[in-house]
Amino acid sequence: MASASVGAIELDYRRQGEGPPLLMIMGMSGTYDHWDMRFLELLARERELILYDHRGVGRSSRAEAPFTIAELAADALGLLEALDLPSVDVLGFSMGGMVAQELALAAPQRLRSLVLASTSAGGARSAHTAPEVLERLGGAMSSGDRQRALRAAWEVNTAKPYSDDADAYERFCAIGAERRVAMAVVLLQMRAIAEHDACERLAALRTPTLVLHGTQDMMVPPANASALADAMPGAQLQLMEGAGHLFFWEAPERAAELVLEHLHSNSDRRLAAAEASRSH
Prior knowledge:
Elements: E1 2-6, E2 9-16, E3 21-25, H1 37-44, E4 48-52, H2 69-82, E5 88-93, H3 95-106, E6 111-117, H4 131-141, H5 146-157, H6 166-178, H7 183-195, E7 209-214, H8 223-231, E8 236-240, H9 247-250, H10 252-279
Parallel strand pairs: 3-4, 3-5, 5-6, 6-7, 7-8
Antiparallel strand pairs: 1-2, 2-4
């Protein structure tokens, strides 16, 4: 664990593994400990992972005023500058996928490739969480019963039969107990998500992109994955059959395999282009 100064704020970050850097951007109400440890271990065999907490989360600076997804992307760019990383691969999950989109649009020269996981382009044309899912989650969160809230969050973020896995749920609860994210910060994140709309701008992106999504995602409906891939020239779409929002918890081996395949493929293309340029 370490801290980096990014403008007026401090971002808590962690580095893990060896190889080309992969910046990993977590979603709403999550900390960098919410990445599944097996998923991280597999990626870290071939990449140096740069994990960090958003403003208002964990040991990063407090967040009391509203912020936008673009401002969170500026935080991520500031972290790259603080760590002297001129270019990286980026994996963004859920809200973190929105941050990754804004990062790619603002500084495309800093991204070698992009993985957008369980996310959407936002805006009126995106497919929203079903009302019954929101009612279930909202009712549990407003009940004052923390265990009920945790269980509801787990069950809408994972698909059966994985949601019945007692050991996995225990790990999820342990992370939530040790690394709580204040409800005030979650509300600020929700506001930023509601205002995000990159749909019309994504056509300008030329960053090699993989869109990953679980077919049983209740939080961000899978229709968003197809719309996102269609909006980005050359983007590849991979659906995780039977998986929910937290597909990298449910199928960490397959998820890591798909991410690394994408990173390797892009590295091969870059190397081939460099060799062709030298030959001329």
